[in-house]
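Let us practice reading a record.
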Amino acid sequence: MQKEHVKLSQLDQDFLTSLLAKGQAPARAFKRATALLELHRGKTLTDVAKTLNVSPFTVSKWRDNYQANGLSALNDKPRSGRPVDLSGHERAKITALACSSPPEGRARWTLRLLADKVVELGYCETLSHTAVRKILKKMNFARI
């Protein structure tokens, strides 16, 4: 008698089988679904890990995550990342400012001048010249 690492309900089995049959799942979800089904069939952690080319520890984490969270364990949780500092409207204002005539005594806008003017106008509290460069680069803006 083989040890079952995971006991899937019939509903979960059907869902995982249909997910694999569709072929539209992301690679991570596909691997996790395959691992859960194989563990349910009685394969060992090592066998599943060799089949999926991952470590046995990874397979055990997938198993534990499924037992704690159910099928939501197939997908990664959203990552927080750094919050967006400027909205699209504010980015448009910065681009419009860069298109406007430069300050008196200047031939053109520099990135530092733009950053200082944006803060002075109150579009945001702080803004670096490199952030201005990234905004203008995304807009395919070439300063003339």
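A brief commentary: DSSP finds seven helices and no strands in the chain.
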